[in-house]
C-alpha cells in the first residue's frame, strides 16, 4: 500500500484558534482536515451567502413546521381569501394556531401582525383608508 500524500501548513493566529477549538472533536488532526475538506467541497456554494439567513432557513425548515412558498402562490391564496365568504373565520383559526414566536415580538394582534389583505384597484390604492399598495397587487392595511 502506497503512503498517502502528506502536507504541511502554516496557520495564522485566527486559524490556529479555530484549529485548537475544533481539534478535540476529531480522533486525529488528519481526520479533522479530511472531514473539513469534504464539508467545504460539498457546501462551498454557500460561501457568499449570508450565514444568518442560512441558519434561519435551516432552523425553520428542519423542524418541519415551515415551508418555502412561491410568492405567486401566496398572492393567489390571499386574493382567494379576500373574496371567500368565510374570510374572517380564516383569521379566527389563524389566531388559534400556536406559534414559537412570542406575541410581543410579532406585533401582538392580528391586525398589526397579519393585517387585512385586499386586492389593489387599478390605480394602486384600495377603497379602505390606511392601506398601502404592494408590488404584488395586494395591499396590507395599516391598523392602529
Structure notes:
The chain has helices at residues 13-23, 29-43, 51-62, 71-83, 87-96, 110-113; strands at 117-119, 131-133, 138-141. It is mainly α. The protein folds into two domains: 13-62, no CATH class; 71-97 and 109-141, no CATH class. It has a three-stranded antiparallel β-sheet with strand order 1-3-2. The termini are far apart.
Tag the structure with descriptive keywords:
mainly alpha; disordered C terminus; 2 domains; 144 residues
List the helices and strands and how they pair.
Elements: H1 13-23, H2 29-43, H3 51-62, H4 71-83, H5 87-96, H6 110-113, E1 117-119, E2 131-133, E3 138-141
Antiparallel strand pairs: 1-3, 2-3
The major pleated sheet works out as: 3 strands, antiparallel
Q: Topology as H/E string?
A: HHHHHHEEE
Share of helical residues:
40-55%
SS class: mainly alpha
Uncertain spans = 102-144
Number of domains: 2
Strand order of the largest sheet: 1-3-2
Instruction: Give me the Rg, rounded.
Output: 25 Å
In short:
This protein is mostly helical and 144 residues long. Strands 1-3-2 form a 3-stranded antiparallel β-sheet.
Amino acid at each position: 500500500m502506497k503512503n498517502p500524500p502528506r502536507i504541511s501548513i502554516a496557520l495564522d493566529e485566527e486559524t490556529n484558534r479555530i484549529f485548537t477549538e475544533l481539534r478535540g472533536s476529531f480522533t486525529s488532526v488528519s481526520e479533522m482536515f479530511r472531514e473539513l475538506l469534504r464539508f467545504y467541497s460539498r457546501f462551498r456554494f454557500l460561501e457568499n451567502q449570508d450565514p444568518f439567513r442560512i441558519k434561519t432557513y435551516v432552523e425553520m425548515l428542519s423542524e418541519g413546521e415551515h415551508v418555502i412558498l412561491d410568492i405567486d402562490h401566496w398572492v393567489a391564496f390571499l386574493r382567494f381569501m379576500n373574496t371567500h365568504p368565510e374570510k374572517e373565520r380564516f383569521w379566527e383559526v389563524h389566531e388559534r394556531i400556536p406559534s414559537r414566536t412570542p406575541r410581543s415580538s410579532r406585533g401582538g394582534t392580528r391586525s398589526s401582525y397579519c393585517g387585512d389583505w385586499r386586492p389593489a384597484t387599478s390605480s394602486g390604492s384600495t377603497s379602505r383608508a390606511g392601506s398601502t399598495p404592494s408590488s404584488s397587487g395586494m395591499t396590507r392595511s395599516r391598523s392602529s
